[in-house]
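Action item from last week, closing it out:
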Amino acid sequence: MSNADLLRQAISQRAELLAAAQAANTNCYRVFHGTVEGIDGLTIDRYGDAWLIQSFHQSLTQEEQESLAQELKQTQDLPVIYNDRSNKNSRILNPLTPELDAFASAEQEMTENGIRFISKLRHEGQDPLLFLDMRVGREYVKANSQGKSVLNLFSYTCGIGTAAAVGGAESVTNVDFSSFALAAGRRNAELNGVSDRCEFIQSDAFPAMRQLAGMKVGGRRNQRLPCYPKLAKRQFDLVFLDPPRFAKSPFGTVDLINDYQSLFKPAMLATKAGGTIVCCNNVAKVERQVWLDALIRCVEKQGRQVASFEWIHCHQDFPSFDGNHPLKIVALTLAEQ
């Protein structure tokens, strides 16, 4: 089958999902998940008033781009942006026409379940400012934040924090190292009229979490610690932990395969008794039950107990081969002490 045929088939299989999205005032979702649907490394998404095609393994030919664009426009006649990210560092390689480049570089607005978010299809970073597979996470916090204090770690553009505030959170604390991401988060809060309940802390996550948990701030061996915002010890009703796969800083190493506990422990200690910590792991080869067991052991080593847990599954616009999506999300509710 051609690329256009595979795309047509994928859109047809999403008919029910797309109708539900329209009814829920959602205009951002995935229409082609190539890893599962026939073209490894190719993704096609709706971001508000635009289609975004991205190739991560192999560049598309001009003919392939045109055939996909034609198919997309038959579904909804919107501008089509192609980002070729097949280089090793995933940076965008291909130029656009001046008109499309201006459109892709401008701030756009989209809605997800009635919540307004900004997007930019091309900017100083790499991704369009909202990860669409995390829609289910935003739905969870919106539904479970009424009257609660929420801590959003590795917040990126604060989609989780914005959803929590829209869902009635009493206060939301967003923590991220990127000033650019937090600026986008502030815009998201402004668009939804929830700025008064949202706090934005630019900080490495390690010192932020450790201070909130009442732990000493340390660092990697022989690393001089840079300045960081000073925070008082505090616990939250709901903590959301969504770290990248791997990153290093003077304060520690983020490693979702070998050392999730170094992130989870302080985040869990910053969670109130009876509160909930939502943990995310996007590494496909991490087996979910093994990961869950390790989280529960970590809780118990700190003299606490998990009262219950709930797996949160990605929506069907992000299909998987066997029903076990690479993105694993589990909500652990801690026992009252």
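Closing note: The mean pLDDT is 96.
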